[in-house]
Amino acid sequence: MITRTGFLAIVLTTLAAQALLPIAARSADVAAAGKQFVDSLAKHDYAAAVEQYDATMKAALPEAKLREAWQAVQTQAGPFQKQVSARTQKVQGYDVVLVTCQFEKTKLDTKVVFDSKGKVAGLFFLPSQLPAEAFGAPSYAQTNAFRERETQVGTGQWALPATLTLPQGTGPWPAIILVHGSGPQDRDETVGANKPFRDLAWGLGSKGIAVLRYEKRTKAHAIELAGIASQITLKEETVDDALSAVKLLRSTEGINPTRIYILGHSLGGMAAPRIAAADPEIAGLIILAGATRPFEDLVVEQTRYLISLQGQPTPEATAKLAETERLMAQVRKLSAADASSTNLIFGAGAGYWLDLRNYDQVATAKGLKQPMLILQGARDYQVTEPDFDGWRKGIGSRPNVTYKLYPDLNHLFITGAGKSTPSEYETPGHVAEIVVSDIAAWMKK
């Protein structure tokens, strides 16, 4: 919902500047309209974009905030270079244009949503999606050892399409629910050329563990949520749906209802203790790259890191850092009196930021009785070792809590070397086999 996973979770899976915009467009030429709108952003002609707003967007995303959103994208992805392609979809009566854009460090899909009047009803920046056939199976996935079936998490307005991976046989099987990082994530938590949640599902399914993964609410219901962005907190973004997933598995044939675990990645890892506190019957927690420091601190730290990759900072990069620091300073100044504000800061309302401030994930985890497995990649630049240390220091040494740091793994728990960069996510890879093996061994212990 916000920046990536933690926030881009803070990087590309998150930095979804979730904003709304519009543009006049004929239905027969919606792709051209989407490309034209992106062209306005690339030329920094924000006034032209603002002229295309519908009534809702005029209030939600004035020119200054549109400028901030575009600058925030380039802070993480690098300067815009060119449009690569455009494709269209029809979603719940809306025309959606996905304009693939090449930035200096990576590709992003600029998602422009048009309403029935040809006005833009939504604007999102997402990791560029590759064709399904581009994603191979990890070597440790024994595809004859499990089967998959489609299901649904929750009911009513926020129902979510889901996939349940079941080992072959009758069970009952222990099960893991995968909880996403921030941003509009799909059920595979697709980032560039990688699908870490699918890797985990197939790897663990090969080892006799059922896995449930589902579309995140901010992905499946992006348009509806964009209209109430200032009202969203971590509860609506993540917690409620994870609890619905637990309820689903408890009534699913073949699942052991007493052995249902939560695996949270990035924002999901940070939220995992809150989910378990709401349902003490959850069997245990697996936290992958869960942040323990305030998000506003992570956003600034991450921006500085990305700029440092350029060598000598350019004046533009320095200005972007200053702007990020200004926005995060606004977050730090928020008080309870701001809770009902409709203004968005970095894509989220004051209520979202205040909700995070009032949630101490480490203290919550320390108060839980369930066993926990806490994993961290040392090459992760989005959620880093100080966050991992936060768990160890806050929870302490306990027989049912296990910590492990992997020297060569990045934020997606994929092996690499040297400094991690956003462009690394564009190289196809898979969650390291040792991570899958460690999770399975911990659960079976």
CATH superfamily (homologous) name of the largest domain: Alpha/Beta hydrolase fold, catalytic domain
CATH architect. name of the largest domain: 3-Layer(aba) Sandwich
End-to-end distance: 35 Å
How many beta-strand segments? 14
- What are the secondary-structure elements, in order, as H or E? HHHHHEEEEEEEHEHHHEHEHHEEHHEHEH
Strand composition percent: 15-25%
Give the count of helical stretches. Answer: 16
Quickly name the level 1 CATH class of the largest domain: Alpha Beta
Rounded radius of gyration (Å): 21 Å
Which sheet architecture does the biggest sheet show? 8 strands, mixed
Shape: globular
- Based on secondary structure, the structural category is alpha/beta
The percent of residues in helical segments reads 25-40%
Oligomer: single chain
